[in-house]
Amino acid sequence: MNRHRFDRCQYLSGDPARRSFCDRPVQPGSAYCPDHHRLCHPPPGSRAYRRVLREFREAGRLAALAAWPSAGAGAADGRGEES
């Protein structure tokens, strides 16, 4: 059984059934290492941000993203401009 260490990255990696974590040092103010923080928190308005919005919209899970910062017009419904 893994014990939580709040100074180590909490990103689940490998087989989810084994609940193994990345375990690299965390980025200050995050539960993740710098690489996994960037993966989990794409900058608003970025291509990755719009992709996540689109995938959640298509899966019918937009309510799960209600706390995400706005990326401008159309961001809340995942219809922000593509670039």
Q: Look at the helices and sheets and give the structural class.
A: mainly alpha
* Helical residues, percent: 10-25%
How many helical stretches?
2
Mean pLDDT: 76
Oligomeric state as shown: single chain
- Supply Rg: 15 Å
Structure in words:
This protein is mainly α and 83 residues long. It contains two helices and two strands, in the order E-E-H-H. It has a two-stranded antiparallel sheet with strand order 1-2. A hairpin with a 6-residue loop joins strand 1 and strand 2. The chain is globular, with a radius of gyration of 15 Å. The termini are far apart. The C terminus is likely disordered.
How are the SSEs ordered, and which strands pair?
Blueprint: E1 12-13, E2 20-21, H1 34-40, H2 47-58
Antiparallel strand pairs: 1-2
Quick summary:
The chain is built from two helices and two strands. It has 83 residues and is mainly α.
